[in-house]
Amino acid sequence: MKFFVDTADVDAIRELNELGMVDGVTTNPSLIAKSGRDILEVTKEICDMVDGPVSAEVVATEADAMIEEGRKLAKIADNIAVKVPLTWDGLKACKVLSDDGNMVNVTLCFSANQALLAAKAGATFISPFIGRLDDLNLDGMDLIADIREIYDNYGFDTQILAASIRSANHMSEAAKIGADVATAPPAVIHKMAEHVLTDKGLAAFLKDAEKAGIKIV
Ligand code: G3P
């Protein structure tokens, strides 16, 4: 499973990128607003830093305007994936932008039918939002499983990009089901390294090392 980082915080991206943890980046208008930076400028900086796809989202709601914005975003760098919402206009924009040769990430997906439409419209990525379904007492992972089954039944190339990931468990669950990509905030990726038995075991090893006077350098 590829790891995308869901942030527009360039320092956080840099740190994870240096560890080889970044196969791509996703942003959205909320994350750009949180960065306090100009969308074109911060997106260019991210694109220059990472090799993989960097999703940049349109803010228009009508297809022609989304296409115009998408074409402008795509000019930022070769690794831009234009992100459009899963509305009827978003699907129209997806078709045109992907026919133009751009990567397109269709976002705000909450049903298998929406994912099926996005694949038909030529989406490179479909972004089902796990956490927001869980917030409604639904099971976001069921949606990932349904989309996986449907895409595999018909050999769709669209990659399942598990989004709205809120916990380390979401990452392993998405990987078990076979999501192609998961995009997570940097804090969730850090959390994946944590285990209480690792901390406990390390404390015991260090205590014994100190007692025995073990020195390596
Ligand atoms: O990947 C989509 C993400 O940015 C939304 O996450 O936590 O706001 O539902 P969240």
TrEMBL record:
<dbReference type="InterPro" id="IPR004731">
    <property type="entry name" value="Transaldolase_3B/F6P_aldolase"/>
</dbReference>
<comment type="pathway">
    <text>Carbohydrate degradation; pentose phosphate pathway; D-glyceraldehyde 3-phosphate and beta-D-fructose 6-phosphate from D-ribose 5-phosphate and D-xylulose 5-phosphate (non-oxidative stage): step 2/3.</text>
</comment>
<dbReference type="InterPro" id="IPR022999">
    <property type="entry name" value="Transaldolase_3B"/>
</dbReference>
<dbReference type="GO" id="GO:0006098">
    <property type="term" value="P:pentose-phosphate shunt"/>
</dbReference>
<keyword id="KW-0704">Schiff base</keyword>
<comment type="function">
    <text>Transaldolase is important for the balance of metabolites in the pentose-phosphate pathway.</text>
</comment>
<keyword id="KW-0570">Pentose shunt</keyword>
<dbReference type="InterPro" id="IPR033919">
    <property type="entry name" value="TSA/FSA_arc/bac"/>
</dbReference>
<keyword id="KW-0808">Transferase</keyword>
<protein>
    <recommendedName>
        <fullName>Probable transaldolase</fullName>
        <ecNumber>2.2.1.2</ecNumber>
    </recommendedName>
</protein>
<dbReference type="GO" id="GO:0042182">
    <property type="term" value="P:ketone catabolic process"/>
</dbReference>
<comment type="similarity">
    <text>Belongs to the transaldolase family. Type 3B subfamily.</text>
</comment>
<dbReference type="GO" id="GO:0005737">
    <property type="term" value="C:cytoplasm"/>
</dbReference>
<keyword id="KW-0963">Cytoplasm</keyword>
<dbReference type="InterPro" id="IPR001585">
    <property type="entry name" value="TAL/FSA"/>
</dbReference>
<dbReference type="GO" id="GO:0005975">
    <property type="term" value="P:carbohydrate metabolic process"/>
</dbReference>
<dbReference type="InterPro" id="IPR018225">
    <property type="entry name" value="Transaldolase_AS"/>
</dbReference>
<dbReference type="GO" id="GO:0016832">
    <property type="term" value="F:aldehyde-lyase activity"/>
</dbReference>
<dbReference type="Pfam" id="PF00923">
    <property type="entry name" value="TAL_FSA"/>
</dbReference>
<dbReference type="GO" id="GO:0004801">
    <property type="term" value="F:transaldolase activity"/>
</dbReference>
<dbReference type="InterPro" id="IPR013785">
    <property type="entry name" value="Aldolase_TIM"/>
</dbReference>
<feature type="active site" description="Schiff-base intermediate with substrate">
    <location>
        <position position="83"/>
    </location>
</feature>
